[in-house]
Amino acid sequence: MRAGHPWLFADSIHRQNRAGKSGELAVVYDQQDRFLAVGLFDPDSPIRVRILHTGKPLTIDRDWWSARLDEAIKLRNGLFDQQTTGHRWINGESDGWPGLVLDRYDTTLVLKLYTSAWLPRLEETVGLINEQLQNERIILRLSRNISKTAERQFKLCSGKVLRGSPLAEPVIFLEHGLRFEAAVLQGQKTGFFLDQRENRRQVESLAQDRCVLNAFSFSGGFSLYAARGGACSVTDLDLSAYALAGAKRNFCLNRAESGIAACHHDTAQADVFEWLKESRALFDLVIMDPPSFAKRASERTAALNAYGKLTTLGINHLADKGILLAASCSAHVTAEEFFEVVRQSALKSGRKFVELQTTRHPPDHPATFKEAEYLKAIYLKFESPRRSRPGA
């Protein structure tokens, strides 16, 4: 904790002077009864205290929180222009707001909570956000682990509009000039995968004259960048009909872009593993950005095996000079482990390849401690004879 780790687990607490309520400030002392830290108390979570401050005692009041919000905003100054109106303002513990995320989608802000400790502080928190960040509305999203508590004790539900008018239509925002829908009321995360922004931009630079497969495509973010980058065709592959319908709508939103209008866009609703096993099509660029394969530490080994199988399947669909983008969002799999699995699968394929680059978190998603590091991606380029083209 002195070194900066932001979590105090229940099993590490030697003695507690009283039961405590969620959202209270908990003062932590070491074995010599010296002040160690202060944090938000959550009696229902294994992470019993989420640390706000270590070192010398100080007063945690409204001015302190206001300054902390100002720090997060300043960290992002200069990162985005008017062509990008979707990004993260607060990234939980790494911005000093443990268990809280705040995302921007144009003039709509989405506040997602991962601990019930924020529920008693919600009114004050929304007031601070509204003072410092211009917005038309603020929407509340809740993680599953606190939804029942929020509804039972605070009459709050995920998707509630905390400030501003109700939503009559989808929220549209810009990312590097492209228009996207954000499912802010019920969609995954806060409505969109903002963390892959820079990888999407990299895909755009690699897509010229390529046939592209976007596996686990969700709402087609990578596909739109590939199309604008000059891709001949893009195939969105996902098990969710809802996600594929969103991808089609996002393509329609951007038809004014000449590259997107010229690009042939297909969708395939199927289990990605099964589709990759059965299809014989080849592509010049294969993107694989699956959901987390390891939601808990016990699933780590199975996740590594799954990443290896998925990489092998993806490589089998690469044409000569084809590029593979493999990404992982599993926090319980380290970047080093993931990269090694992908590299080993590439070696076992028997095809010559070069590693183009690896990437981690974008600047608006800082990760200041080990458990916060989840996002990683690797780009490989392969050589081999061509067999067939998509649809052949």
Fraction in beta strands:
25-35%
Question: Largest sheet, described in full?
Answer: 7 strands, mixed
Rg estimate, integer Å: 23 Å
State the distance separating the first and last CA atoms: 58 Å
DSSP strand tally: 18
Per the principal axes of the C-alpha atoms, what is the gross shape? globular
CATH superfamily of the largest domain: Vaccinia Virus protein VP39
CATH topology of the largest domain: Rossmann fold
Q: What is the CATH domain class of the largest domain?
A: Alpha Beta
Number of domains: 3
Helix content: 25-40%
Query: Largest sheet, order of strands side by side?
Result: 14-13-12-15-16-18-17
Looking at the overall shape, the CATH architecture of the largest domain is 3-Layer(aba) Sandwich
Unreliable runs, pLDDT <50, ≥5 residues?
A: none
Q: What would you call the structural class?
A: alpha/beta
Mean pLDDT: 96
Helix and strand string, N-terminal first?
Answer: EEEEHEEEHEHEEEHEHEHHEHEHEHEE
Tally of contiguous helical segments: 10
